[in-house]
Amino acid sequence: MDKLIDLLERSKHCVFLSGAGISTFSGIPDFRGKDGIYRKFDADKIFDIDYFHSEPQYFYSHSKDLVYNVDEKEPSFIHYTLAKMEQIGIVKTLITQNIDQLHRKAGSCNVIEIHGSARESTCLSCGKKFLYEIVANVVKEGTIPKCDLCTGLLKPDIIFFGEMLDENTIKKAMLESSLADLFVVIGSSLLVQPAASLPLYAVRNGGKLVIVNDMPTPVDRYADLKYSDLEDVFNSLERHFCSHHRPELKDGSTLKDER
User: What is the 3-state secondary structure (H, E, C) of the chain?
Assistant: First the structure.
């Protein structure tokens, strides 16, 4: 851990890439882990764009307890630690594969959501936008959300399998990865492109690579440091960076530990 802390303190442009593994600490199942959603649902259907168009009920009936309950979830101490590390200048950019919005809820500002999020939904017929809260209430009632203007089908602004990523978003992620002198992967198996290639942008430009994941990844051989236990790593980071850098409030007190 001293090696990781030293790399973080010496870094001028540190970029983190987070995957579903960090959200398990908030009670959200990951995808490919031992209790992942791919062991419960058909992975070829739930986030497949063609299947969504043909049978939207499948997505909405299964996502009720996956996508449309995140308002009931709270960020974990990992999310809060990352937000604090951004506040004190350690983390420059946070790229996430997650669609659960928990990084922003914890207070991280410079977040790139490469797979989008359900913060908004779009009518596939007329393009009208709907906020998460409105759609979530409909889905929780067991109904397929439809547009109140044209009755068109609503789709969350999540990138489904078979859809193109947002060009500006992925360009920004690639640029930040290329600028990184330290790139830290947390809770991702790096099996889904283009996120799986982002660490290599840093490595090819001379950046150091750190991977924290409980399963092997395709880029492990490029890692300068490799850890398997997210909780242990972030307990150490929280102690080192956060307990000594709690912002002072106007009354002279400091922010309490949200954990």
Answer: CHHHHHHHHHCCCEEEEECHHHHHHHCCCCCCCCCCHHHCCCHHHHCEHHHHHHCHHHHHHHHCCCCCCHHHCCCCHHHHHHHHHHHCCCCCEEEECCCCCHHHHHCCCCEEECCEEEEEEEECCCCCEEEHHHHHHHHHCCCCCECCCCCCEEEEEECCECCCCCHHHHHHHHHHHHHCCEEEEECCCCCCCCHHHHHHHHHHCCCEEEEECCCCCCCHHHCCEEECCHHHHHHHHHHHHHCCCCCECCCCCECCCCC
